[in-house]
Amino acid sequence: MRRYGKNPDEDDIRVRPNSRGTRPRTTIRPKHEDAAEGMVLTVDRGRLTVLVDDREVTAMKARELGRKSAVVGDRVAVVGDLSGQKDTLARIVRVEARKSVLRRTADDDDPFERVVVANADQLAIVTALADPEPRPRMIDRCLVAAYDAGLEPLLVLTKSDLAAAEPLLETYGALDLDYVVTNREDFTTGGVDQIRERLAGRVTAFVGHSGVGKTTLVNALVERQRSTGVVNAVTGRGRHTTTSALALPLPGDGPEGAAGWVIDTPGVRSFGLHHIDPSRVIQAFPDLEPGTEECPRGCSHDEKDCALDAWVAAGHAEPARLDSLRRLLATRERREGD
Predict the structure, then answer these.
(1) How many CB atoms sit inside 10 A of residue 104's CB?
(2) What is the pLDDT of residues 73-118, one digit of tens each?
(3) CA distance 160 to 169
(4) Could you say which DSSP state residue 337 is in?
(5) Mean pLDDT of all residues in the chain?
(6) Peptide bond before 136: cis, by omega within 30 degrees of 0?
(7) What phi and psi, each to the nearest 5 degrees, are found at residue 272?
(8) Is 40 exposed, middle or buried (0-12, 13-18, 19+ CB in 10 A)?
(9) Angle (deg, nearest 10), helices 136-149 and 319-333
(10) What is the distance between the alpha carbons of residues 181 and 80, in angstroms, rounded to a whole number?
């Protein structure tokens, strides 16, 4: 305890400064009306590369965003040093509303969903016909995720020089999927025009197992090259050479300076669907959806009282379409690899 003399003076008393300052903290945040618009190209350990006009700017998330994160494909508002020069850093102060969000979980028991990409309008599901062998269940899972996110699926089959594509295509014939079949020679001779036509003017996310040739295909489509790997001869699995998602522009002129965008994502070995509501899958089958009006409440569309059986039997839709729907719904309840 501090002792004072007989005649203490208030000026002698030490006053501890307010660590929070003398002015009350305001809840009003700046609107950043002069912020520049940009697109997130990649995210790496808290640093984001954002395309602002024709410059790639390194940025970090502003504190006022809280827990809201930005992912590849996001449209964002950026302030700070936008020169794009080395050792400069900008701030992302706002994430604009997303038109679409592609999500997945680690597995079907994982309640935490992960956003793969934002604002894509097409999902290219890349599958090798051999080396490694195709995994239809993985394709089914990607289709369910695409339908749920409102993305148009595109099936890309690679390595047709090693195996025929017809058996796998027959499996998905009833879904009326758009597809492209390629071989290794297409990548070296520039014969990927049929894929480029389907990507023109769109934002397309590429997903697939490691080793299916996804990154090799992306390298053939764009000018910027990414490293590739090989398939393990013992396990039949590829090695993860793409470790983070990256948005790449297609060569050519478009509304935003590119003929389209390709988003290369890391290879996956599972595609969890814990976040998917099975009742939304039917929306991808417009020829079957009217038949569900007579279904009992909470119908799983795979039970004796389901009205879709009578709908198909009356000739309103093809039986193969109902089989495809039920296969996709069953996929929601299965684990990859079962």
Answers:
(1) 24
(2) 999 999 999 999 999 999 999 999 999 999 988 776 777 788 999 9
(3) 12
(4) T
(5) 83
(6) no
(7) -70, 145
(8) buried
(9) 90
(10) 46
Structure tokens at 314: 């009356």
Its sign, for the CA torsion 274, 280, 283, 285, is positive
Rounded Cα distance between 295 and 4, Å, is 87
The tokens describing 263, both together, are 């988003």
Report pLDDT digits (tens) over 249-285. 998 766 665 789 999 998 777 787 877 887 788 877 8
Residue type, 128: A
Per DSSP, the three-state class of 211 is coil
User: 46 phi and psi, to 5 degrees?
Assistant: 85, -10
Strand partners, 114: 104
HSE of 120, CA atoms in CB hemisphere, 13 A: 36
Q: Is 189 helix (H, G, I), strand (E, B) or coil?
A: helix
Cα separation of 84 and 89, whole Å? Answer: 8
Global pTM reads 0.79
DSSP string, 144-176: HHHHHHTPEEEEEEE-TTTS-SHHHHHHTGGGT
Structure tokens, 188: 């070296």
d(CA 129, CA 167): 10
Q: Give the residue from 283, 277, 297, 287 showing the smallest Cα distance to 322.
A: 287
In this structure, which amino acid lies at residue 75?
R
Q: What are phi and psi of 22, to 5 degrees?
A: -90, -15
Query: Whats the size of the chain, residue-wise?
Result: 338
Contact 187, 205 (CB under 8 A): no
φ, ψ dihedrals at 290, nearest 5°:
-60, -30
